[in-house]
Amino acid sequence: MGAKTLGPVRRRFSPWNDPDAKPLIEFKNVIKRFGDFTAVNDVSLKIYEREFFALLGPSGCGKTTLMRMVGGFDEPTSGDVLLDGKSIKGVPPYHRPVNMMFQSYALFPHMNVKENIGFGLKMDGLPKGEIDARVQEMLKLVKLEPFATRKPHQMSGGQRQRVALARSLAKRPRVLLLDEPLGALDKKLREETQFELMDLQMTLGMTFLIVTHDQEEAMTVADRIAVMDHGKLIQVAPPSEIYEQPNSKYVADFIGDINLFEGKVAACADNVIRMESPALGTVIEVEDDEHCTVGEDAWFAVRPEKMRISLDQPAQTGLNVVAGEVWDIGYLGDSSIYHVKLANGKTVRATIANTDRMVERPIGWEDKVWLTWPRDAGVVLTR
Amino acid sequence: MAGLAPPTAGGGNAAPASSQNGWTQRIVILVPYVWLLVFFLIPFFIVLKISLSEQVRAAPPYAPVFDILTDPAATTLEKLSMLGLGNFGRIFSDTLYIEAYLTSVVIAGISTFATLLIGYPIAYGMARAPREWRATLLMMVILPFWTSFLIRVYAWIGILADEGLLNNVLMGLGLIDEPLHIMSTNYAVMIGIVYSYLPFMILPLYSALEKMDDTLLEAAQDLGCTPFKSFWLVTFPLSLPGVIAGCFLVFIPAVGEFVIPDLLGGSETLMIGRTLWEEFSSNTDWPLSAAVAILLLLLLVVPIVIFQNQQAKMQESGR
Question: Fewer CB within 10 A of the end CB, N or C, for chain B?
Fold first, then answer.
């Protein structure tokens, strides 16, 4: 498959680090208000050709509005949206070289699969032979050839999703907009489809812009994720950076599971930040090149899987170590999650991967345990 | 007057009765069937019987009259032999009746089309109106029903007459020099029908347009459709069930309409409802008018069956 050979290319793909790269879509200080409500608040963002870009955030954060401004269904109140360097403000949806896959799929119920997929091509006035060929190609792409003459109401949710995808791809748009494309599918089908979407995007070499509230989905498919909240971009970065280097408590908390320890910055030198947290009874040292100021309030954020849990007291106490009691154990199959209650009443989560079958787990309920973490396990957040 | 089966006739579409609540379901279905039997089927057979009888100068003005309780069997058989299709033969041999049927269908057809042309934009506007206005708009469509139908049709005489409101206004504006002769013509009848039956067109259209998913229109535009084109390619085809329902709800009663042609039509307006009334009251020819009514029913059965099929299909496709 072409997708496989493009693998290494994808790994090196990072046009956002190239100052000379020309963005395909550019939002310039975009503000969108609906009455008193500000849906999008001063967003500037560049999305590059062939990128799989995800807008992620809770419902009402403005991600869908931002996408609809690319599709032409909403116009910015102020600011500008550029496509290929040209402003598309005021261009109606039917004159924009972008297509959207709707959350509800929005398939035309009075048309069969073929007619749905060929609709946009017919609107472009393509000759019939060409439309048929392209529809066939699309049916093959989404593996729906046997269903060409079915009506949407005769198909399952997963099949309808594919028809919607094929229809939005048929016109070979400059950008494909995906509005919660997998929201209506069950978990297993959703995960499968995520990988299919990635392969498809690679094979077609197209730019995909996806809106989702599902962080796993965004992490899986996207080259870069923009985490949004209350109409603002909080962080725009590749998934691994979003996960390992969140820039704020909001992002850290929104993506995955995380422990947050409150404290004060005591020293910053040689890329090591020293935090004092009297509530925890320990000093925290973090390898971090972030700028910080001594005396500032800060939070230490560390993922549960980066915590080490042990029954034995570590050699060095008072640094990157806390003691507590196992309060709850959640067995998830691939891993187990331990809720450890500290002396100050705070609960800390630590996960252990269950790499061996059928072993007696040595740590049980109400055991006194020590939690430790290395200096590079977490990050210091100041907002 | 048109034999539109009540919607309950769709009871045949009910889910198959499960053994547990089978009998309650059967009773529920039975109610409309009993209703149909008592108030539609039995009167229908009475009318059918009269249509096969002969006109006589007596009360009732037809013969034979059956009295199942007192008549001996032989007399009943003799009376049965008196029934015949003579009245139907008379209808087919006289061009007056054929003409009346045709005129009714043409006037009802043109009026239905005009009702659709006027009703569609109104229903469309209502369905696109802000949600909080819709109930009020719907109320305004139904409001005329609060006044007697007869009075509303009489009011049109005042509007359409040669010395009426319309002509006065048009002449006052200097648009015409002589009054338009609308009253007592087929045009007046059509205006009356369009006015009277407009709500029956608007309501099904509105219900079809109101539940339309707006994202379908966005999808159409996204795929390169101008708003005008997306109306014809998406909105209109999806509202077709409403269009068909509205057209039948107007056409079927309009064919048999009697009051409007009688009040607004002229001597040349030969609609079947009026012909029927003439035969019934002026000529006291009950058997012939009964035959006219039976034929009208047969004439309307075809569109009614099409209408019912359409409804059933719509339910199947889940729309």
Answer: C
pLDDT at B317 over 70: no
Q: For residue B111, is pLDDT > 90?
A: yes
Pairing of strands A321-331, A86-87: unpaired
Residues in A touching B233 (Cβ below 8 Å): 119
| C-alpha B296 chain-centroid distance | 12
CATH topology of domain A257-381: OB fold (Dihydrolipoamide Acetyltransferase, E2P) (2.40.50)
What is the residue-averaged pLDDT of chain A? 87
Residue A140 amino acid letter: K
Q: CATH 3.40.50.300: which residues of chain A? A: 2-97+173-249
Q: Which two tokens stand for residue A200?
A: 């498809």
Average pLDDT for chain B: 86
- The amino acid sitting at A11 is R
Chain B nearest C-alpha distance from A237 (Å)? 29
Cβ of A94 and B318 within 8 Å? no
Predicted complex ipTM = 0.82
Instruction: Determine, for residues A171 and B224 on separate chains, whether the beta-carbon distance falls below 8 Å.
Output: yes
Closest Cα partner for A4 from A202, A192, A194?
Answer: A202
What CATH number is given for A2-97+173-249 in this structure? 3.40.50.300
Interface of B with A in 260-319 (CB under 8 A): 317-319
Pinpoint the alpha helices (H) of chain A: 2-5, 7-12, 63-71, 113-123, 128-141, 157-169, 187-204, 215-221, 239-244, 249-254
Q: List pLDDT tens digits, range B37-89.
A: 999 999 999 999 999 988 888 888 888 888 777 777 778 888 888 888 888 99
Q: Residue B115 above 70 pLDDT?
A: yes
SS3 category, B262: helix
Tokens representing A219?
């992490």
Inter-chain CB proximity B218 and A106 less than 8 Å: yes
